[in-house]
Write a structure and sequence with these properties.
49% helix, alpha+beta, Multidrug-efflux Transporter Regulator, Chain: A, Domain 2, 2 domains
Length: 166
C-alpha cells in the first residue's frame, strides 16, 4: 500500500474553520460554540480572537451529532451515540491501518481490500465486493500469488448474463 494512502487514513490534521463547518453541516456557528462550551466538541487552540478551527475527527463528529438530532434524539443522546460510533470507527481504523495491504477498484464495480499477512504462511486475505450484485467474496492467497482480476471479471460477466436470461 502506498505511504500516501496510509498517511491519508491516519491523518487528523485537516483544519476546517467554524464558518465552513457551519455551512457543511447546517449548524449555526453559535450552536457550534455552545457545543464547544459544553465540552461536546473541541476546537484547535489558536491565538485569542482568531476564528475557531476544527480537526477532521471533530468535523465528522459534528456531522454525526447533527444527523442524530435530525432523527429526533436529544443533544446529549446525539453526542453519546456519536461518541459510540467514533469509538468503533477508531478501532476499525487501528486494525485496518496495520493490516491493509492494498485497496483497488476494478472496472468501477469491484472493490478489493487486501489484508495481511494473516497467518504464519504469509497469506493475504482478499475481500471482494461486487457493487452490482452487492455480494462479498473472500479469497486467501499466498503473498507471492497475485489476485486474478480477469477471472473475477469473467465470473461477473457470466453471472450478469445468467441473470439477464431469467
Amino acid at each position: 500500500m502506498s505511504h500516501l494512502f496510509r498517511n491519508l487514513v491516519e491523518n487528523d490534521n485537516l483544519l476546517v474553520g467554524i464558518s465552513e463547518l457551519s455551512q457543511m453541516c447546517g449548524i449555526s456557528p453559535r450552536q457550534l460554540r455552545y457545543w464547544e462550551q459544553k465540552g461536546f466538541i473541541v476546537s484547535v487552540s489558536q491565538e485569542e480572537n482568531a476564528p475557531r478551527k476544527y480537526r477532521l475527527p471533530t468535523v465528522i463528529k459534528v456531522e454525526m451529532i447533527k444527523r442524530f438530532l435530525d432523527e429526533g434524539f436529544t443533544l446529549s443522546k446525539s453526542v453519546e451515540k456519536a461518541d459510540q460510533k467514533i469509538k468503533i470507527a477508531h478501532h476499525i481504523r487501528k486494525v485496518f491501518s496495520g493490516a491493509l495491504q492494498n485497496l483497488e477498484v476494478i472496472d468501477n464495480r469491484f472493490t478489493i481490500i487486501s489484508l495481511g499477512p494473516v497467518d504464519e504462511n504469509q497469506h493475504i486475505l482478499h475481500i471482494i465486493h461486487d457493487d452490482v450484485t452487492q455480494k462479498l467474496h473472500y479469497e486467501l492467497l499466498p503473498l507471492s500469488e497475485a489476485y486474478d482480476f480477469e477471472k473475477l471479471k469473467n465470473c461477473a460477466t457470466h453471472d450478469t448474463a445468467k441473470k439477464e436470461d431469467h
